[in-house]
Amino acid sequence: MTESGTGPTEGYAAGSPSEEKPYLAGFACLVGRPNAGKSTLTNAMVGHKVAITSSKPQTTRHTIRGIVTNERAQLVLVDTPGLHKPRTLLGERLNDVVRETLLEVDVIGFCLPADQKIGPGDGFIARELKEIQQGKRRPVVAIATKTDRVDRQRLAEHLISIDQLGSWDAIVPCSAVDGSQVGEVTEVLSSYLPTSPGPLYPEGVLTDEPQMVMIAELVREAALEGVRDELPHSLAVVVDEMVQREGRPAGKPLLDVRVNVFVERSSQKAIIIGRGGSRLREVGTNARQGIEELLGQKVYLDLHVKIAKDWQRDPKQLQRLGF
């Protein structure tokens, strides 16, 4: 179910019927308020985990590129932090990242979860996008995410609310969880990409994120599960070292990965470590499985939890932690 505007490929019928359509390649940005389903949709479109997901909002800190390649187009997805009213210097910097990204992409996907009513946060983003549409003339596709969580009546009401929120080039409902209309989202976003002599990235490449960044994100995802609401904002992860262990048998390599997990207070450190270190062991086990799948080899994961007091408000510490 879509309401499509005039994408750049529509009406391309010059020449004989056998003439092929041009190849399209470019960048798309998924934007939305925190926890709108952007990372989950990115992973569903790519068909592989390239962005961390969490039930907690505001988990994406880096612009993660997922790459979707088919015979007709290559869509490079840029996943951003959720736009929100910032309370810290970190929050301000995350918003700046989003705005800079929006100005550089070819098409924007605005994610609005179907299980939540349109709110002030969505209105805030819609106004920002209206300025970009008018100034930079970037097409914006409104995407109703999480449709698996609502019935047909609620979805219909949500689509009407989205239509009334702004002037969109297309509206597409989808569910990244059950896969409904995910291919349609890819197709609609791709239709607004510029023509290209070929793909921007080699076939088979799913992301251009450095391995160390993805490893840090996998550790942070594991650490975020099942913790108190205030902890996600206070958690930063830095990969300190990655070295192949010497003296291993041929054909059985082992990678030693040392990772520092930073929190702001001793009480948060206690939450991450858990009673007798039980929670940290669980975090390590879950993260290691994801890292081994990413790297395709056995890993020894060495986790250390450290306190960096009020790092979200300290420019020097923000820089040291990669923000």
Top keywords for this entry?
323 residues, alpha/beta, three-stranded mixed β-sheet, 10 helices, 10 strands, disordered N terminus
What do you see in this structure?
The structure is a single chain. The protein has 323 residues and is of the alpha/beta class. Helices cover 35% and strands 21% of the residues. Strands 1-7-6-5-2-4-3 form a seven-stranded mixed beta sheet, with helices on both faces. Helix 3 (120-135) links the parallel strand 5 and strand 6 (140-145). Helix 6 runs antiparallel to helix 9. The chain is globular and about 55 Å long. Mean pLDDT is 81; it is low at 1-18 and 56-61.
The side-by-side strand order for the widest beta sheet comes to: 1-7-6-5-2-4-3
Strand share of the residues?
15-25%
Shape: globular
Helical residues, percent:
25-40%
What are the low-pLDDT stretches, counting only 5+ consecutive residues below 50?
A: 1-18, 56-61
How many strands, what sense, and barrel or not for the largest sheet?
7 strands, mixed
Give the SSE order as H and E letters: EEHEEHEHEHEHHHEEHHEH
Distance between the termini: 39 Å
Structural class by SSE content: alpha/beta
**Would you report the number of β strands?**
10
Whole-number mean pLDDT: 81
Helical stretch tally: 10
| Cα-atom radius of gyration | 21 Å
How would you summarize this macromolecular structure in one to three sentences?
This protein is an alpha/beta fold and 323 residues long.
